[in-house]
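Note to self: user wants both folds in one dump. Writing first protein now.
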Amino acid sequence: MALKNEKLTHLHFYYHNLLAGPNVTALPLNPKGPLDFNDPAGLFGRLTMVDNPLTLEPELNSTTVGRVQGLYGVASRTDVAFVELVNFVFTADGEYRESTVTVLGRNPILAAGIREMPVVGGTGVFGFARGKVHFKTYSFDTTTGNGVVECDIYVFHY
């Protein structure tokens, strides 16, 4: 297969990780007692499957452009750090519809500022994708685990 010139695309979205409430989008696969983000060792090993809405603005009722689908697990006994395998699945009409960007890496969710994870692949428009995603927590409820995360995706693709 001949490859065209590579281009860089920057995408900006918010995803909503909802562990509690009427429309749960994050389901713990092996609940290990109450959520206590002050006790990383107690959270260690917790796995969660997600199908989170991806929106243009931080409000859940803003325009939905896709889903963040995949799995994360607490992979550290000393801080709340996830290993994440997620696909950004684009569902809105337009050039990215039915394309995906795949992210795999470590995400220390309580860290201040911007967290970076690698883009390891993609499909559709983002075939042969590589790049990085910057995550920044927009809001987080330590009681419920519900959160909104701002995402900047920088992806090279053909």
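First done. Writing the second protein, which came from a different request thread.
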Amino acid sequence: VFSLIIFSSLLTDGYQNKMESPQLHCILNSNNVACSFAVGASFLAFLSCLAFLVLDTQETHIADTRFKTAFQLLDLILAVLWAVVWFMGFSFLANQWQHSPPKEFLLGSSSAQAAIAFTFFSILVWILQAYLAFQDLRNDAPVPYKRSPDEGGMVLTTLPSPSATSPMNMPTTGPNSLSYASSALSPCLTSPKAPRLAMMPDN
């Protein structure tokens, strides 16, 4: 909104002719660079605000966290950049208006003062925008990943204790009962049996 006010003020009444000449001059000390700078900067600032307004409406649909972080970082950088630009613009426009001869132009003084005032207000707005962008970037910063000491190790699971009705606690009678009970055990609980040594007679 402030960019539109600066743009429209200088574009409509920012160029006036002197009484002795029909040629148009910038009302800011007859310096066309000052008016061109203010008009161009306000127009670019308005376009950047429109672009970020469109991106803000699509932020909820962005699933990639890296793109969202890059978007917030770009928002912060542009806000700081525009704050610096408008600070320089305010100093430049105020200096040119101070050195302008009084009553050199019949019209346009109110437009020049409005443009200078809203240039100063733009500095405050962009500083606030930079602060909000920094807060969003800090709040949404990814948590650094720390590898735990146990990560990557073998995960051991314990089996539940056998119940009274499990095959391991059933009476082991018969030649096949031992093999049946041992087959119910998990392979991780059974250990290989060592070979049995037998004493052989000398003959």
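Dump finished. Worth passing along: The two ends are 113 Å apart (CA to CA).
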